[in-house]
Write a structure and sequence with these properties.
The complex is a heterotrimer of chains A (about 525), B (about 120) and C (about 450). Chain A is about 30% helix and about 10% strand. Chain A has about 525 residues and is α/β, with parallel strands linked by helices. The longest helix of chain A is centred in the last third of the chain and has 37 residues. Chain B has a single domain, classed as Beta Barrel (OB fold (Dihydrolipoamide Acetyltransferase, E2P)), CATH 2.40.50. Helix content of chain B is about 20%, strand content about 35%. In chain B, the strands form 2 sheets. A 6-stranded antiparallel β-sheet of chain B has the order 1-2-3-9-8-5. The mean pLDDT of chain B is about 90. Helices cover about 35% and strands about 15% of the residues of chain C. Chain C is built from 13 helices and 13 strands. Chain C has a 7-stranded mixed β-sheet with strand order 1-7-6-5-4-2-3, with helices on both faces. In chain C, strands 10-11-13-12 form a 4-stranded antiparallel β-sheet, with helices on one face. In chain C, helix 3 packs antiparallel against helix 11, helix 5 runs parallel beside helix 11 and helix 6 packs across helix 7. Chain C is globular. Chain C starts with 7 loop residues before the first helix and ends with a helix. Classes of the chains: A alpha/beta (about 525), B alpha+beta (about 120), C alpha/beta (about 450). The interface between A and C is large, with 210 and 218 residues.
């Protein structure tokens, strides 16, 4: 067998994809470090407990029931495990995950950059991590100052005059921004008339979902052959019915919208607002201020650009920077400084402007603010700019190193992510999905697949600034090797069998969706005789 | 003999008297892949031609089904709840979606016959 | 810069492979008018870990840490002891630094704990199906109302005056901008509100909280029956999830959707976030749920495994027809929740609830004995409302000056309402001690 790995790019994994190891079965079903793990409900025993709690104080004699007669009857059904069992269970589960801490995680549009541990440490300091959101304002002056400090950085980096800190994630920030636009239109008396939101076909799904939730009709704007918004089509779509455009910049094809200034001018001339999806802000921090592009509002995903941990899908945070036109409508709460004292403007506080309402209890994702500020202070103005440049450089390097073997979707340079289509796999019998699953066996998390929708079989690679060149080279070598194997035209079966070396092989998603099993039940207790279900009927 | 007509949204309607039985075509099920769920309309619902009345879902896609004609839904295929795969195996048989009592049979004239639909599908590839 | 692995030599080599002379060339698509030459002025440069840590210690020093003083605040966020194992687990890099489990073959760890989490939520709430988390209880409540509007195709929500005031605000905000009507009840201080008569054929849902914001424990079975007779849904909100160890779960009262703030289990106070929203409903509404769902299936070798499922509800597929725009949720906070609850188990969780109730009962007895102070609750779990002989806000400030965090003046969340001006909300969890209760009672006597 001839191996087609480019040795100069790094060491080869060896073997041929799709060729399962002939290792014998084990008694336990475990394979060395890969340990099969039952559910906690299959491990528990009555009488075991992972915490030691004192006996509750006995009720004084004669004290009446203070639960209004609503004492819970019967078992909850929770399993009992000791502390070592709990530690082992979750440790074993953790070992079935891929993570940034393990290597290249090129998931496009997600900015899987290094998550520094100092961020975790400062978020847990007594006096920060243990504060109650509603303790007297006089006792949380440092916390309010911290939030204001992060707000200052965000406003300065984006060149915007105001920021709403409370949204809990990017999609929540979109909701905040589009509500602010609705509020501004209402103040102008044009809310009933401007019901259309324009969004490029390549937009994140959250954009149309957000606009539709707020009662807007979403009108797609086509892309031109350069992967950017078609300015002529946009101008034709603008009119007195248009409330806003929702535009991601850099866009989801990994490209900077080169006509963004013309776009914002046209949008404003038509009396509409410019919502910028800031998911890709990491490409331009310190090099471009969205405020200079005519943006009216933009959410910032702190878990993308500013390294707060992705945590298996959250928590995130989605502060929204606002232009002067939208700032008066920012939701409660926000921080104000009065002399040398910090205050919180909470509901019904007397303020100028017309706050759109409230989106979240308390003051926002403080734990994420702390981490993001620690990241920002660690980098400083110089490091943030360098980080963006390195992210863009790395993505262009990926694009250049693969352009002869994969099919670049649009001409470069790209920003912080490189987009390919599946035309290089034409007639090989290998799909984008197969290609991605084969990457797993090479020890990599796949790139984002089938997004953006405007590119056939899209593969979106975002290396971030966090990878050393030699690690990128090994990754690129693996991709080159896979393209060579795919192009032999005889490897389709092998690709379809991948992955072989992961904790699980491909999972049957059709079965999962046809007969949804969304919770554990005792296996000898089918749903129709399940006591929990019966009690609920 | 039953008359079968086709829409450009890849639905078929089998006409018997003033009752039409509606489902999706072989081509449509191939495009969708494994069907995992079909949301069918309730009996008694009045629908207008072109209105979104049902949803058919695969693992990664959801498609709206539009009423090819106006009328009242008189029956829907309850068996699809347990075996949505019928849409893949017998799209024009056991995989039917719902039956409608047509209010205007004249609307059928805007639909294609089998030969026209076959030509239409060919033009797509 | 310690986080950036590329050296200048690497950068030069990479530029030569790209065929660019400088990194500036890579930004050539940026309109010239918007290109920044030098770094942004007025911001400091990078700092070492030591300097950063010192800066945060300085912020912390300007706050009064609840861990170091008598502490009795609740109102939707509760101070509980979190076992060390929890924090250790969520800081494992394999959990901390992975993302949404899009590739199930290499994210079974996340998927399995979320499946276990979903199961635990159904057990606690007495419901049939739960999702893999919402941002928090407050946003989850607003999502529940939107879901009820979808299910019933109606557009009027009745919101109890016993619901947390900020949660009510969030529903009002959604109602205004998303286009439905929300009828908001007056603050239900005494716990006597009866919404049954208000439920009509236009009502999509009734939203109640148990125990209520003011601490009252209510039976909503009759309200549930009235909702169902009118074709409306009952949404029960629980902001103190530990109460479910002692109180009849909403599912047994006939709730259709249950939303909980999960912060109490596994998650610290953190000045208000990030927390974790728990969201549960009936099987029949499964496809109308917002958020991510994990389901069981098998892999190509027939082995049990887990995947994200029923994704066609979600924004990345359904776009403008999605059930919600939610994407990233609260994965790591859900892990903290499930690890803590697994440590507690049946016996530990129930005992924790008993201890909370006993501590609060003791506090209520002692506070109620202070002259001029009246406990308003006949029933409560670990939080109750008292009426003071004078406005509560300055009293709480005076207590803070004595380094005692002695509850929440209700007027902070319900401003401009003279009827609540003298009300103080007090909570006691398992963390309350004699060393805390004694000084609170003594200080209260002094400042009143």
């Amino acid at each position: 067998m001839v191996q087609s790995i480019d040795r100069s790019q790094g060491r080869a994994t060896g073997g041929e994809i799709g060729n399962a190891s002939a290792a014998p079965a084990t008694f336990t079903g475990n394979r060395a470090l890969q340990i099969e793990e039952p559910l906690i409900f299959e491990m528990g025993q009555p009488g075991r407990c992972g915490v030691d709690l004192p006996e509750p104080a006995p009720r004084s004699p004669g004290v009446k029931d203070r639960l209004n007669g609503l004492r819970r009857a019967g078992d909850i059904g929770l399993p009992g495990l000791s502390e070592p069992q709990v530690v082992q269970h979750y440790t074993r589960l953790s070992q079935k995950n891929y993570a940034i801490d393990m290597g290249v995680y090129p998931l496009g549009s997600c900015t899987m950059k290094h998550n520094p541990r100092i961020n975790e440490k400062v978020a847990r300091l007594p006096g920060i991590g243990d504060l109650h959101p509603l303790q007297p304002v006089s006792t949380v002056q440092g916390a309010l100052e911290l939030i204001d400090r992060l707000a200052h950085w965000l406003k300065t980096l984006t060149g915007m005059p105001a920021v709403a800190m409370s949204p809990a994630a990017g999609a929540h920030g979109e909701m905040c921004g589009m509500m602010a636009i609705s509020a501004a239109l209402e103040a102008r008396g044009e809310r009933a008339q401007r019901k259309t939101v324009l969004a490029p076909e390549s937009a994140h799904g959250t954009n149309p979902a957000t606009a539709a939730a707020l009662g807007f009709i979403v009108k797609p704007i086509p892309a031109n052959e350069r992967g950017r918004v078609d300015l002529t089509a946009l101008k034709a779509a603008l009119g007195p019915d248009v409330a806003a455009i929702m535009l991601t910049n850099p866009n989801t094809c990994g490209l900077f919208e080169s006509e963004v200034v013309e776009i914002s001018a046209a949008v404003h001339a038509a009396g509409a607002y410019f919502y910028c999806d800031g998911a890709n802000f990491n490409a331009i921090v310190g090099r471009v201020r969205p405020g200079d592009l005519g943006v009216d509002c933009m959410h910032i995903n702190l878990h993308k650009t500013f390294s707060t941990p992705h945590g298996g899908g959250g928590p995130g945070a989605g502060p929204v920077v606002l232009s002067a036109a939208l700032a008066p409508y920012a939701p409660y709460p926000w921080i104000v400084k009065d002399g040398d004292k910090w205050h919180v403007a909470e509901d019904e506080a007397k303020v100028e402007g017309k706050p759109l309402g409230r989106l979240k209890a308390f003051h926002g994702q403080m734990g994420m603010f702390t981490r993001a500020l620690a990241y920002i202070m660690s980098h400083g103005a110089d490091g943030l700019k360098q980080a963006s440049e390195d992210a863009v450089l790395s993505a262009n390097y990926v694009m250049a190193a693969l352009q002869d073997v994969m099919s670049q979707a649009f001409e470069g340079p790209c920003m912080h992510e490189a987009l390919f289509d599946d035309s290089f796999l034409k007639d090989t019998g290998v799909s984008t999905l197969d290609f991605a699953k084969a990457m797993i066996d090479e020890g990599y998390h796949p790139m984002t697949m089938y997004f953006p929708l405007v590119v056939h079989g899209a593969m979106l690679i975002e290396p971030t600034e966090s990878q050393a060149k030699e690690d990128l080279d090994l990754f690129l070598g693996a991709l080159r090797s896979l393209t060579a194997k795919a192009k032999t035209g005889t490897a389709a079966e092998a690709f379809k069998a991948a992955p072989l070396y992961a904790p699980r092989r491909r999972l049957d998603e059709t079965l999962a969706a046809r007969k949804p099993i969304l919770r554990w039940r005792p296996s000898n207790n089918p749903p129709e005789t399940d006591p929990v279900k019966q009690a609920a009927e | 003999m039953a008359d079968v007509r086709y829409s450009e949204e890849h639905e078929w309607i089998r006409v018997e008297g003033d009752t039409g039985t509606i489902g999706i075509t072989q081509y449509a099920q191939e495009q969708l892949g494994d069907v995992v769920f079909v949301d069918v309309p309730a009996s008694g619902r009045k629908v207008a031609k072109g209105e979104s009345v049902a949803v058919v879902e695969s693992v990664k896609a959801a498609s709206d089904i539009y009423a090819p004609v106006s009328g009242e839904v008189i029956e829907s295929n309850a068996a699809l709840a347990d075996s949505p795969g019928d849409v893949n195996t017998e799209p024009m048989g056991k995989g039917w979606f719902f039956k409608i009592k047509m209010s205007d049979k004249g609307e059928l004239t805007g639909l294609m016959d089998e030969a026209a639909y076959e030509a239409f599908v060919k033009s797509l590839s | 810069m310690r986080y950036l692995p590329l050296t200048d030599a690497d950068r030069r080599e990479m530029l030569s492979v790209i065929g660019a002379r400088s990194v500036d060339e890579l930004f050539k698509d940026v309109p010239e008018s918007a290109r920044l030459g030098a770094k942004i002025a007025g911001l400091p440069d990078h700092q070492g870990e030591l300097e950063v840590e010192r800066a945060f210690q300085a912020y912390a020093a300007k706050n009064l840490s609840p861990s170091s003083v008598p502490f009795f605040i609740g109102a939707g966020a509760y101070r509980h002891h979190v076992p060390s194992t929890v924090d250790y687990m969520i800081q494992r890099g394999e959990f901390l630094t992975s993302y949404t489990p899009y590739q199930p073959e290499i994210t079974q760890g996340t998927l399995q704990y979320l499946f276990e989490f979903q199961t635990q939520i159904t057990m606690l709430t007495g419901m049939e199906v739960a999702n893999a988390s919402m941002y928090d209880g407050s946003t989850g409540t607003s999502e529940a109302v939107l879901m009820a509007n979808r299910v019933t195709r109606r557009h009027k929500a009745l919101v109890s005056g016993g619901l947390h005031p900020q949660y009510r605000r969030i529903i009002e905000t959604a109602a205004k901008w998303e286009g439905f009507s929300a009828v908001i009840g007056k603050p239900d201080v005494e716990g006597l509100e009866d919404l049954i008569a208000a439920v009509d054929k236009e009502t999509s849902c009734v939203v109640v909280q148990n125990p209520s914001f003011f601490g009252h424990v209510r039976d909503f079975a009759k309200l549930a029956a009235a909702c169902h007779a009118a074709g409306a849904l009952l949404i029960v909100v629980v902001t103190e999830v530990v109460s479910l160890g002692l109180i009849t779960p909403p599912g047994e009262m006939g709730a259709d959707i249950v939303v909980c703030e999960g912060q109490s289990i596994g998650n610290g106070l953190g000045f208000g976030g990030p927390y974790v929203g728990l969201f549960a409903t009936r099987d029949k509404y499964m496809r109308q749920m917002p958020g991510r769902l994990v389901g069981e299936t098998v892999d190509a070798d027939g082995k049990r495994g887990f995947v994200l499922t029923l994704s066609t509800r979600e924004q990345h597929i359904r776009r403008e027809k999605a059930t919600s725009n939610i994407c990233t949720n609260a994965g790591l906070c859900a892990l903290a929740f499930t690890v803590h609850l697994t440590l507690l188990g049946e016996a530990g969780f129930k005992r924790l609830a008993e201890i909370n109730h006993a501590k609060a009962s003791e506090l209520a007895d002692r506070i109620g004995a202070v002259p001029g102070v009246k406990v308003l609750n006949d029933s409560f779990f670990n939080e109750f409302t008292v009426r003071l002989p004078k406005p509560a806000a300055p009293v709480v400030e005076a207590l803070a000056a004595k380094r005692i965090l002695g509850g929440l003046p209700v007027s902070r969340l319900i401003p401009n309402d003279p009827s609540v001006e003298n009300l103080l909300l007090l909570a006691a969890t398992e963390t309350a001690t004699e060393e805390g209760m004694g000084p609170l009672v003594a200080a209260l006597k002094e400042v009143l």
